[in-house]
C-alpha cells in the first residue's frame, strides 16, 4: 500500500534496522538522511565535505543543505516513502509539509521508537556497519558470522566515525533539544504512535506492521 511515514527516535533507537525490514517487505523507498550524507562524504562532494565536520561532532547539518538533498529523493518514491532520520527540527518538519503539499500527498503516520538511554548507549557503542550494502550489525546483539565481514554481501564492516563516546553524548543532547519536540508536534496532529523499540528487531517490526494495518497504511 502507498504510504508516507516517518520513523522518529533517538540515535540508536533502531530506526535504520527496522526501516530496512519495512521497506523490503512493503516496496517503499527508505530515505535516510544520515545514509545520504555518508554517501556524499564517501564521494567527497562539496556537500559531503561540508557535512562531515557537523556529523563527526554529533551536531545537526544545517536545514537548508538537508532539505535540498531530500527533495530530489522524495520524488522517486512512487509506492511510498519511509523517512528515517528526517525531520529532526521543527523547521524541517514544516518544510516537509510544504514539499508534500507541492507533491499532492500527505503524511500518513509517525512512528516514535521509545528506547531507554542505557540501551541506546550500548547499541551505539557496539554498532558495526557494512561499507558496501550499509547493513547494520552489533558486536554483542547481532554479531556477523565472520568477524569484520558482512553476512549479506561479504563487504568490510566498520565503526561509524560518530559512534565514539563524545559524539554519542552530543548526538543525544541534540536529540533532546532539537528533535524530541517533534513528538508533541506530531501528537498535536494526531499522527504519532509510540512503539517500544527496546525489544527484538522482529518484534518491533511486527508491532509497527500491526499498527500501520490498523491505521489503514
Ligand atoms: P543518522 O545516521 O540518522 O544517525 P542517528 O539518528 O544518530 O541514528 P543512528 O543511525 O545512530 O541510529 P538508528 O536509530 O538508525 O539505529 P540503528 O538501527 O543503526 O545521522 C547521523 C548524523 O547525520 C547526525 O548526527 C547529523 O549530523 C546528520 N544528519 C542526519 N540527518 C539529518 C537531518 N535530517 N538534519 C540534520 N542533520 C542530519 O541501530 C543501532 C545499533 O543497534 C545497531 O548496531 C543495530 O544492530 C542495533 N539494534 C537496532 N535495533 C535493535 C533491536 N531491536 N535489538 C537489538 N539490537 C538492535
How many β-strand runs?
8
How big a fraction of the residues is strand? 15-25%
Largest sheet: 5 strands, parallel
CATH architecture: 3-Layer(aba) Sandwich
CATH top level class name: Alpha Beta
When the domains are counted, the total is 1
What are the distinct ligands in this entry? BIS(adenosine)-5'-pentaphosphate
CATH fold label: Rossmann fold
Structural summary, described in words:
The protein has 217 residues and is of the alpha/beta class. The chain has a single domain, classed as 3-Layer(aba) Sandwich (Rossmann fold). The protein has nine helices and eight strands. It has a five-stranded parallel beta sheet, sandwiched between helices. It has a three-stranded antiparallel beta sheet with strand order 6-5-7. Strand 5 and strand 6 form a beta hairpin. Helix 1 crosses helix 9 and helix 2 packs across helix 3. The termini are close together. The site of BIS(adenosine)-5'-pentaphosphate has 35 residues, from helix 1, helix 2, helix 3, helix 6 and strand 6.
Summarize the structure.
The chain is 48% helix and 17% strand. The chain is an alpha/beta fold and 217 residues long. Helix 1 packs across helix 9 (201-214), helix 2 crosses helix 3 and helix 4 packs parallel to helix 5 (90-103).
Descriptive tags:
binds BIS(adenosine)-5'-pentaphosphate; 9 helices; three-stranded antiparallel β-sheet; five-stranded parallel β-sheet; about 220 residues
Describe how the helices and strands are arranged.
Elements: E1 3-9, H1 15-26, E2 29-32, H2 33-43, H3 46-56, H4 63-74, E3 80-84, H5 90-103, E4 109-114, H6 117-125, E5 127-130, E6 136-138, E7 157-158, H7 165-179, H8 181-187, E8 192-196, H9 201-214
Parallel strand pairs: 1-3, 1-4, 2-3, 4-8
Antiparallel strand pairs: 5-6, 5-7
Helix pairs in contact: 1-9, 2-3, 4-5
The structure holds BIS(adenosine)-5'-pentaphosphate (AP5).
Amino acid at each position: 500500500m502507498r504510504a508516507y511515514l516517518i520513523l522518529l527516535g533517538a540515535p540508536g533507537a533502531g530506526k535504520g534496522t527496522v526501516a530496512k525490514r519495512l521497506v523490503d517487505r512493503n516496496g517503499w523507498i527508505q530515505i535516510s538522511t544520515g545514509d545520504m550524507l555518508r554517501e556524499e562524504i564517501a564521494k567527497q562532494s562539496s556537500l559531503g565535505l561540508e557535512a562531515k565536520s557537523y556529523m563527526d561532532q554529533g551536531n545537526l547539518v544545517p536545514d537548508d543543505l538537508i532539505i535540498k538533498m531530500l527533495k530530489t529523493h522524495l520524488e522517486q518514491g512512487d509506492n511510498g516513502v519511509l523517512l528515517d532520520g528526517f525531520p529532526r527540527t521543527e523547521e524541517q518538519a514544516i518544510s516537509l509539509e510544504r514539499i508534500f503539499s507541492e507533491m499532492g500527498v500527505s503524511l500518513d503516520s509517525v512512528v516514535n521508537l521509545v528506547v531507554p538511554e542505557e540501551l541506546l548507549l550500548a547499541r551505539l557503542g557496539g554498532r558495526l556497519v557494512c561499507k558496501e550494502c550499509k547493513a547494520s550489525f552489533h558486536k554483542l546483539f547481532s554479531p556477523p558470522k565472520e568477524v569484520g565481514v558482512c553476512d549479506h554481501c561479504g563487504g568490510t564492516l566498520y565503526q561509524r566515525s560518530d559512534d565514539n563516546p563524545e559524539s554519542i553524548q552530543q548526538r543525544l543532547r541534540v536529540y533532546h533539544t532539537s528533535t524530541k519536540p517533534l513528538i508533541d508536534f506530531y501528537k498535536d496532529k494526531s499522527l504519532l504512535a509510540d512503539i517500544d523499540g527496546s525489544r527484538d528487531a522482529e518484534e518491533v517490526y511486527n508491532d509497527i506492521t500491526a499498527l500501520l494495518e490498523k491505521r489503514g497504511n
